[in-house]
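Two quick folds needed for the group meeting slides. Do the first one here.
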Amino acid sequence: MRPLTIIIFLSVYFLLDWYLFSSYRNLWQESPILWRRIYSITYWSFSLIPLVGMAFYQQLGEESARAFRTVLTSGFFIVLLAKIISASFLFLDDIRRGLVFLVELVPGVEPKFSSSRSEFMTKVAVGAAVVPMAAMTFGIASGAYDYRVRNRVITSPNLPKEFDGIRLVQISDIHTGSFYNKTAVSGGIDMINDQKPDLAFFTGDLVNNSSEEAKEYLDVFKKIKAPMGTYSIMGNHDYGDYRQWANAAAKQKDIQNLQDMHRYMGWDILLNENRVIEMSGEKLAILGVENWGAGRFSKYGKMEPTYAGTVEAPFKILLSHDPSHWDAQIRPDYADIDLMLAGHTHGFQFGVEIAGFKWSPSQYLYKQWADHYQEGNQHLYVNRGFGFIGYPGRVGILPEITVLELKRA
């Protein structure tokens, strides 16, 4: 970050602090001096400790300090978000005060409201800061590795009798570069194996930026067992598009390393290709396309080679990382693809799911963002993600292990 950018950022950061602190301290002005000092120290500690940590975290070692750096970074952004939300309420009160002040300037007009700072609005502003801080902190401590198994039944008239009742497990968006608790991840793998799947699928984003991130977890994910095979694809983060490389060759070498890692784990990585499984003369096709996303996301996927040779298979499963691919290409052009498995959205790692009600900011970006969707005989399942990126936690939208049972209609 350039020095001028740092200066501007710190100026805005401390201006926001001054604005908040000058309002908050009115709440404890009548308290004994000891308590006034405790409140002031508490406020500035919450403000300065994450900032100091952010300034020095890069001095720490890559592996040994990953968890510590994650906590520091998260703490900084949680505090910053809480401040912005709180300041918004105070700013509304200042608008009110400004209007009252203007009314007071008009001769003969008595204002009905006081132009002094509203104690009620200040308390609301404090509460508005505490609530997101508490929720996001809880999301890190409790939600990040709180894996949930979601069972769904997919019914299709195209499913051959030999595959009736087959169990599939799907995980997506592992993002090993974000993990900081290997024991918890291993527990998630045990949960996957407890489902006793016939087939296992991974639908992209093994890493955040580079293959190096996955090394520590290869032997963990290698333990996934499915007698009919584990199949995988690449997601938008697996191509190294979100970091700088010395040259194109270095980027391509890292992509190759990542693909070799899939194979080391025993995962059959599908790169715009397919596999046909045959049982007693009946066929089921597994198609794996490279990342293809509508809008600004990368379009490495090529459906023609992915689909080639699968016409005779009556039931086809497509692995495609981005759910926007379903409406953009699959439903219009490949009506005989019965089931598409996707991920990518993470369910925004934030939302509400209670008794059938489902809401997340993700729904404003993606028409299909989590769970099961159906149009005619075509099905789409969007996994909420096994890992996380950015914010190292989850609030309401928990990490998912999907179990799909295929049934013949």
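Then this one, please, same format:
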Amino acid sequence: MNGNIILTPVGVLHCGLRNRSQVPRNYDISDVTGDIEIFPDYHEAMADIKPGQEIVVLYWFDRADRSALKVYPRGDRSRGLTGVFSTRSPMRPNPIAISEVEVLEVEPGRIKVKGVDALDGTPVLDIKKKV
């Protein structure tokens, strides 16, 4: 398949992380909190999300370098250049990111979470229950 794929965000992340230097390298070392605003067309999809659950959030890293095919894992040059498909680097041809976050609060159109590792304003593509 060589066609285009069109993705429509279901929401957007709001948090205090404004520049890349503030963002934790991965969700599993983050205690940063934020709010996932769910767009009105998708409010029904929030049914059954509860505080205390862990959810998987798929983001579109809209400010990532999409031309990078090799990176130094976690910025560690001693590890050598590695193909992005073998890393969790945000720099990749399609900057889809995945994070597991803890649900702190749920309100209509908003999910407050802990474990944020994305910039403020990052589009949210999907949310899944962690199994």
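Slide caption for protein two: The beta strands are 11-15, 33-38, 54-60, 70-71, 82-83, 96-107, 110-114, 123-129.
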